[in-house]
Amino acid sequence: MLETNLKPFFKFSNGYACEATPLYKGSYDNSVFVMSYKDQYWFDLEVRGIKLLEDKSYSPEIISIDPAQRKITFKWYDTNLNHMLHYNKPLPKDWTNQVKEILEDLEKSNIFKLNIYPHSFYLKNDKVCVMDLYACLLIEDKITSEELEGVINDKNRFLINDNLLDIKHAYNYTIKHNIGEWPEDFLND
Predict the structure, then answer these.
(1) Residue 50 has what pLDDT?
(2) How many CA atoms lie within 13 A of 94 on its CB side?
(3) In the chain, how many domains are there?
(4) Are the C-beta atoms of residues 33 and 64 closer than 8 Å to each other?
(5) What is the DSSP code string of 90-146?
(6) Alpha-carbon distance 161 to 71, whole Å?
(7) Gap between the Cα atoms of 31 and 132, Å rounded
(8) Tens digits of per-residue pLDDT, 172-183?
(9) Calpha distance 106→27 (Å, rounded)
(10) DSSP class of residue 6?
(11) What pLDDT score does 4 carry?
(12) How far lies 16's CA from each of 81, 86, 87, in Å?
């Protein structure tokens, strides 16, 4: 795989292509997705998220993890939910239920995915999978306000108590306020 042949990954928001996350540069083709992390902290959280979810059927199929370059490569099917919704491509009839079931399964494992956005989900043979696992946090994680500097875009959502992120509040706020701009606000059904 030559990385020069990869396309930059963008999400669509309000009809416009924009940067999906400030934490890594995403690039892809029809078979691989490469995450090139800018910061060691977030790279390490992504690797930890991969390990937390490695036995889940909806986790990414990791091809390689390169700590020296802070790169993670996984199998890609070019079926990002954000792109599929933007281009009105057909989705499995139960895709919304699959997203809910993933979140419920994560909750049962005391894992809370704070970035519940369509661009952090994709399809593999009509099955919804997750990516961007740096935001799959355990309730007992200690995420300081300093670590979130430059990442927080909503102080009501990312509530800081005693210099630590209130993970449960951020998770519930994300769902309640449909931060991911999911169609028909289906997470609140």
Answers:
(1) 98
(2) 8
(3) 1
(4) no
(5) ---TTHHHHHHHHHHHHHHTTEEES---GGGEEEETTEEEE--GGGEEETT---BTT
(6) 32
(7) 17
(8) 999 999 888 899
(9) 26
(10) P
(11) 66
(12) 15, 9, 12
Q: Is the distance from CB of 38 to CB of 25 less than 8 angstroms?
A: yes
Higher pLDDT, 49 or 184: 49
Half-sphere exposure of 95 (CA within 13 A, CB side): 23
Q: Measured at the alpha carbon of residue 92, what is the angle toward residues 86 and 95, in degrees to the nearest 5?
A: 80
Cα of 108 vs its chain's centroid, Å = 18
Structural domain including 16 reads 3-188
User: How buried is 40 (Cβ within 10 angstroms: 0-12 exposed, 13-18 middle, 19+ buried)?
Assistant: exposed
Cα distances (Å, whole numbers) of residue 107 to 45, 47, 72, 138: 18, 19, 25, 9
- The structure's pTM equals 0.94
**How do residues 99-118 score in pLDDT, each as one tens digit?**
999 999 999 999 999 999 99
Cα 142 to chain centroid distance, Å, stands at 19
